[in-house]
């Protein structure tokens, strides 16, 4: 028998009773595919839980707990609308117990600040724990044999709270024991994404993109036939629809193309989340829970190049450009290593890098560490900092073998000052930096050049 299909549903796909009902219909229609369901917290609930931890840490635990009431009531509303008695009473009691437990945890955080980090994960985990229990009950109400699993018994991690790293071997063994057993009995496992547990049993969270990551980890552990990421968009688009409203959907991407687009601004998924799928060659499909019959975007190891090499244009604003210039760089050994060690010490992630004989430039999308970085960088040379930039990335598997793509791209934006260019580091992208005030214009012009206008005639201007 082929592997199961892992179906992950994001927060907007489980935001209210109507959304839960849509998800239940999607799963029920695919029950022969042996689904494993992974769900995020209800939309906005995770943000509210994080804010409550912060407020409690500032000495306001009662006020923090009160801010969660409206979100817990949203769960109650779904329960009343979709789950019959007596399970409704049982889950209702569970929600009240969760309310009391959250209030207790917030009081502990206020009284003992040293507990904030580990208890942050405990508090925030309630988003996925409650939504997954509720989803399992809704599926059972539709006649499915759904079994709720505590994700902390499946996803095993290190003890790095708020951004834990999964332990692959332990996760595989635990997931096969828990979810594999449910599948073997003909049941549909349902678990929350984003959360796991350390070796000592403490609750952990996986950080940004954690629910997608959980789905990929579960899929890898179960040798899934496919991993489906259900969200509120119909897959990847050729450009941000807020900039280019008529941007078309992309039917197929390679893993590398999807990762580049995600890293450089496409919000469909976080690039690291598909890594477990990549490692095992499991295809990923991005689907729209509001348009379940739409094909979405299929992501696999290989894909056909686009007719004009370019699949999509991504962009990311809020970029800070840092440049270090030093004459002693000329012919010197170890300068680049010293430069990057500064960023490593301060856990500052660099997006794009370009070098010349006597200077090196790098971009940061989070400049929070910059005040600490600058004194160390100034020991290496003269430092320049330029805020208010944006990264634009032209992506496609055919870039490396198609002549003229760079010329066509820069020809389309010839009246725009390009601050930095990175080409050749990847065979599938052309990346450059422009002023943030002109990035929308740049994206529109590039989209027009590659997707709307006919290709330039050979030998033409």
Structure description:
This protein is of the alpha/beta class. It folds into 2 domains: 5-232, Acetylglutamate kinase-like (Carbamate kinase, 3-Layer(aba) Sandwich), CATH 3.40.1160; 312-452, 2-Layer Sandwich (VC0802-like), CATH 3.30.2130. Helices cover 39% and strands 20% of the residues. Helix 1 (17-28) links the parallel strand 1 (5-9) and strand 2 (35-39). The longest helix is centred in the first third of the chain and has 25 residues, at 87-111. The model has no long low-confidence stretch (mean pLDDT 91).
Instruction: Just give the CATH class of the largest domain.
Output: Alpha Beta
- The beta-strand count equals 16
- The appropriate CATH architecture of the largest domain is 3-Layer(aba) Sandwich
For the biggest sheet, the summary is: 8 strands, mixed
Please give the count of helices.
15
Could you state the CATH homologous superfamily of the largest domain?
Answer: Acetylglutamate kinase-like
Biggest sheet, spatial arrangement of strands: 3-4-2-1-7-9-10-8
CATH topology of the largest domain: Carbamate kinase
Q: So what's the overall shape?
A: globular
By secondary-structure content and strand pairing, the structural class works out as alpha/beta
Query: Termini separation (Å)?
Result: 57 Å
Mean model confidence by pLDDT: 91
């Amino acid at each position: 028998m082929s592997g199961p299909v892992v179906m992950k549903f994001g927060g907007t796909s489980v935001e209210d009773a109507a959304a839960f009902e849509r998800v239940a219909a999607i799963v029920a229609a695919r029950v022969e595919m042996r689904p494993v369901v992974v769900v995020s917290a209800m939309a906005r609930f995770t943000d509210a839980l994080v804010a409550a931890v912060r407020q409690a840490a500032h000495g306001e635990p009662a006020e923090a707990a009160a801010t969660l009431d409206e979100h817990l009531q949203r769960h109650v509303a779904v329960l009343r609308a979709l789950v019959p008695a007596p399970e409704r009473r049982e889950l209702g009691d569970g929600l009240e117990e969760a309310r009391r437990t959250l209030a207790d945890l917030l009081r502990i955080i206020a009284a003992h600040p040293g507990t904030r980090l580990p208890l942050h994960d405990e508090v925030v985990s309630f988003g996925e724990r409650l939504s997954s229990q509720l989803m399992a009950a809704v599926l059972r109400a539709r006649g499915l044999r759904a079994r709720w699993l505590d994700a902390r018994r499946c996803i095993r991690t290190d003890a790095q709270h708020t951004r834990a790293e999964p332990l692959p071997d332990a996760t595989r063994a635990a997931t096969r024991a828990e979810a594999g057993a449910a599948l073997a009995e003909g049941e549909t496992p349902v678990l929350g994404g984003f959360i796991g547990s350390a070796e000592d049993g403490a609750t952990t969270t996986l950080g940004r993109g954690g629910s997608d990551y959980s789905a990929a980890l579960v899929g890898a552990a179960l040798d899934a036939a496919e991993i489906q990421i259900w969200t509120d968009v119909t897959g990847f688009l050729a450009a941000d629809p807020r900039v280019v409203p008529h941007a078309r959907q992309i039917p197929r991407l390679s893993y590398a193309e999807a990762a580049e687009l995600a890293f450089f601004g496409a919000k469909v998924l976080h690039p690291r989340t598909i890594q477990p799928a990549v490692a095992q060659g499991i295809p990923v499909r991005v689907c729209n829970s509001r348009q379940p019959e739409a094909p979405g975007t299929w992501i696999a190891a290989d894909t056909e190049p686009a007719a004009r090499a370019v699949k999509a244009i991504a962009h990311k604003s809020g970029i800070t450009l840092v440049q270090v210039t030093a004459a002693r760089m000329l012919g010197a050994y170890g300068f680049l290593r010293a430069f990057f060690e500064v960023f490593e010490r301060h856990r500052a992630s660099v997006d794009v890098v370009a070098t010349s004989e006597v200077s090196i430039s790098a971009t940061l999308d989070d400049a929070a560490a910059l005040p600490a970085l600058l004194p160390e960088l100034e020991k290496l040379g003269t430092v320049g900092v330029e805020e208010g930039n944006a990264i634009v990335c032209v992506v496609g598997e055919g870039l490396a073998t198609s002549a003229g793509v760079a010329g066509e791209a820069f020809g389309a934006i010839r009246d725009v000052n390009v601050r930095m260019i990175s080409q050749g580091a990847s065979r599938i992208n052309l990346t450059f930096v422009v002023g943030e005030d002109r990035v929308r214009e740049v994206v529109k012009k590039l989209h027009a050049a590659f997707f709307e206008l006919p290709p330039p005639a050979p030998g033409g201007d």
